[in-house]
């Protein structure tokens, strides 16, 4: 990914999409006070709603996006995907889901993150974009694959034309998980090889969300994948991290638009 600075805001963009307006924003340059300092996009973490609203305005302005047409979802750690034709009047979210796709121009798709994995999708041939929120639950339910399949089934996309950017999230060296997660990974993928790592000293398990989501996408035919490889739990000066900051933190935003 490449880092971009717009005024006080800093965001990252995937190098494979120079023509696509998109960004995964850091926590820098916003209006929120500590512990949500400062570009917090999360409206349900205890922050001042006016600051959160202003932070959204700053994000859309940085990419020259139409905030009035922006679409999002109420994220619930599922694999459900919604087709977005435009915002719903009188409500900021379209439904309970963790995947969102559209072929409409001037219709930004956005979600919020703090260790879970942002997945951004783009098919330049059919003119379709998507975004997904993949924590461990969404990953083992197949939210990435389901988002790609929704693009294929609803818009006639070819898997070989779909490009996916796997954004900053908690990395495999920091994401310690319980045995119930190990079992869920085994059930989803039929293996834990390359997905679960064991501590040599005590045998505790660590999950590689980047590898798991890549494998999930590859199994439905997606070949063009760029992985940021940036750990939010390590880079807390740039990103919010629910794990590293013990739940008292904000949410960083990811957005893209045709």
Task: Give your account of this protein's structure.
The protein has five helices and 14 strands. With 258 residues, it is α+β, with helices and mostly antiparallel strands. The strands form three sheets. The protein has a six-stranded mixed sheet with strand order 4-5-8-7-9-13. The chain has a five-stranded antiparallel sheet with strand order 1-2-3-14-6. It has a three-stranded antiparallel sheet with strand order 10-12-11.
What descriptors fit this protein?
258 residues; alpha+beta; CNF1/YfiH-like putative cysteine hydrolases; 6-stranded mixed beta sheet; 5-stranded antiparallel beta sheet; 5 helices
Topology:
Layout: E1 2-6, E2 9-13, E3 21-25, H1 49-62, E4 81-83, E5 99-102, E6 109-113, E7 117-123, E8 128-134, H2 136-141, H3 143-155, E9 163-166, E10 176-177, H4 179-189, E11 196-198, E12 205-207, H5 209-218, E13 224-227, E14 252-257
Parallel strand pairs: 4-5, 9-13
Antiparallel strand pairs: 1-2, 2-3, 3-14, 5-8, 6-14, 7-8, 7-9, 10-12, 11-12
Biggest β-sheet description: 6 strands, mixed
Residue fraction in strands: 15-25%
Query: Rough shape?
Result: globular
Q: With helices defined by DSSP (H or I, 4 residues minimum), what is the helix count?
A: 5
The CATH superfamily title: CNF1/YfiH-like putative cysteine hydrolases
Runs in which pLDDT lies below 50 for 5 or more consecutive residues are: none
Sketch the topology as an H/E string, one letter per element: EEEHEEEEEHHEEHEEHEE
Helix content: 10-25%
The CATH class assignment is: Alpha Beta
Q: What is the CATH-assigned architecture?
A: 4-Layer Sandwich
Strand order of the largest sheet: 4-5-8-7-9-13
Q: Domains counted in the coordinates: how many?
A: 1
Q: What integer is the average pLDDT? A: 97
Query: Class by helix and strand content?
Result: alpha+beta
Q: What's the N-to-C terminus distance?
A: 19 Å
Question: What is the CA-based Rg, rounded?
Answer: 17 Å
CATH topology: CNF1/YfiH-like putative cysteine hydrolases
């Amino acid at each position: 990914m490449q880092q971009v600075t717009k005024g006080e805001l800093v965001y990252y963009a995937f190098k494979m999409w120079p023509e696509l307006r998109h960004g995964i924003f850091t926590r820098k340059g916003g209006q929120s006070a500590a512990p949500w300092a400062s570009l917090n996009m999360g409206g349900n973490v205890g922050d001042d709603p006016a600051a959160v609203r202003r932070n959204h305005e700053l994000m859309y302005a940085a990419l020259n996006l139409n905030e009035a047409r922006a679409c999002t979802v109420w994220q619930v750690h599922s694999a459900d995907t919604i087709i977005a034709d435009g915002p719903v009047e009188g409500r900021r979210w379209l439904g309970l889901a963790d995947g969102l796709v559209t072929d409409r121009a001037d219709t930004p798709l956005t979600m919020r993150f703090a260790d879970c994995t942002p997945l951004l999708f783009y098919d330049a041939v059919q003119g379709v974009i998507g975004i997904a929120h993949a924590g461990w639950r969404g990953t083992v339910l197949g939210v990435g694959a389901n988002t790609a399949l929704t693009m294929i089934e609803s818009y006639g996309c070819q898997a070989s034309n779909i490009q996916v950017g796997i954004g900053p999230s908690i990395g495999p060296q920091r994401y310690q998980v319980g045995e119930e997660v190990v079992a869920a990974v085994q059930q989803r993928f039929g293996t834990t090889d390359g997905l679960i790592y064991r501590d040599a000293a005590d045998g505790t398990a660590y999950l590689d969300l980047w590898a798991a989501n890549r494998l999930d996408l590859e199994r439905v035919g997606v070949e063009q994948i760029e992985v940021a490889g940036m750990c939010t739990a390590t880079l807390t000066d740039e990103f919010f991290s629910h794990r590293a900051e013990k739940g008292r933190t904000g949410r960083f935003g990811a957005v893209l638009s045709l």
